[in-house]
Write a structure and sequence with these properties.
With 350 residues, this protein is α+β, with helices and mostly antiparallel strands. Helices cover 42% and strands 33% of the residues. The protein has helices spanning 3-13, 33-39, 57-66, 108-145, 148-157, 178-184, 187-208, 233-252, 287-296, 308-312, 342-348, and strands at 17-22, 28-31, 69-78, 81-94, 97-106, 163-175, 210-216, 219-224, 261-275, 281-285, 304-307, 318-329, 332-341.
């Protein structure tokens, strides 16, 4: 057996597709069984490009004449599978006659793995975005339920240590005739109205450092002076309360549904903590909350009633007038005051 015959036997036996072409005409001079198995039976002497009409012939010829090689890929259906083959054209000599050696390797599995990796990467990226979005939503929800410093403590340690804040000022608001209003209007209308009002209250409270802690129906409770203690917590609570009422006055001037509230402000101690396990919520409780809730019942429509501790902490932009006595704790009655300010009188047209 000659060396050429041995070489041909070797080319037929290997697991890659091999073909020999004339350099000038690209006509087939030889191909092994693997090549035929992939691309079909080809007659010796046929032009290879007749079977690969998508090839860029000019690019192929230019690369072979310049660099002596050209690499490309082709994808096709072989029986029920999609197959991708890497094709490497190399210029060579056969007894001083220029030829092209075409070596083809099946890279279908590699392409499948690349596709799987790409799909997995896309899935991981999508899941990461969803997790990030859900995390942001949870964070936003928790920040609506508790102050940021409390949220940071909860996120870091998984618990919130109950703390006594003394003193702070609590603003307690409810709406007069709310029960009748609920039955007189569609539920969606009432919810929409409350949403507008509480959103405005939250914005005003944030401006003055009086954060909402709770809102249940027509009851709105905000606290100034916690979790970061401040000296002017009573001032912040009173300023927020006055802006709450001024907002309602302005809103009533242009809206068909008229809202009237009463406000209680009390300074004193409260305890802040997360309450509950499955349906936990950050809450405050203690004397100041109880006092503010009781004080609102003594308030006339669109007025503020405060206890002595809150009233004494206000500066001269506010005026306080006695409105009577109220048993705020231990059945001991103490003086309570109506709190007014120039902005409040102006809003009321007084």
């Amino acid at each position: 057996m000659t060396i050429a015959a041995i070489n041909e036997q070797l080319l037929r036996a290997i697991g890659v597709g091999v073909a020999l072409l004339d350099l000038e005409t690209l006509r087939l001079r030889f191909c092994n069984d693997t090549f035929r198995g992939w691309f079909g039976e080809m007659e010796i002497g046929s032009n290879l490009l007749d079977n690969f009409q998508d090839f860029d012939t000019e690019t192929l010829r230019a690369a072979l004449n310049a660099e002596g090689r050209h690499a490309t890929e082709t994808t096709f259906r072989l029986r029920r599978r999609t197959m991708t083959v890497a094709m490497d054209f190399n210029r060579a000599l056969d007894e001083e006659e220029p030829i092209v050696v075409l070596v083809c390797q099946n890279i279908s599995r590699i392409k499948e793995l690349e596709s799987m990796i790409d799909s997995y990467s896309v899935m991981v990226e999508r899941n990461t975005r969803e997790i990030k979005r859900e995390k942001e939503q949870v964070e936003k929800l928790l920040l609506n339920m508790m102050p940021r410093s409390v949220y940071e403590e909860y996120k870091t340690f998984g618990i919130v240590t109950p703390r006594l804040y003394d003193p702070v000022s609590v603003v307690c608001i409810d709406f007069i005739g709310f029960a009748e209003m609920v039955t007189a209007h569609e539920p969606a209308v009432i919810v929409s109205e409350l949403n507008d009002i509480y959103t405005a209250f939250d914005r005003i409270g944030e401006q003055f450092g009086c954060a909402r802690i709770r809102a249940v129906g027509d009851l709105y409770i905000g606290v100034a002076g916690m979790p970061d203690p401040t000296e002017d917590h009573a001032q912040a609570a009173a300023n927020a309360a006055i802006r709450f009422m001024r907002y309602l006055h302005q809103r009533n001037a242009s809206h068909p549904i008229q809202w009237s509230c009463r406000v209680g402000i009390a300074s004193g101690p409260v305890v802040g903590s997360v309450v509950g396990v499955q349906k936990y919520i950050y809450d405050v409780f203690g004397p100041a909350v109880i006092y503010a809730s009781r004080l609102r019942y003594m308030a006339e429509p669109m007025t503020i009633t405060g206890n002595g501790a809150a009233t004494q902490s206000l500066d001269d932009q506010f005026t306080a007038s006695e409105v009577g006595r109220l048993a705020l704790s231990d059945e001991i009655e103490e003086l309570v005051f109506r709190i007014e300010a120039e902005q409040m009188r102006a809003a009321q047209g007084g």
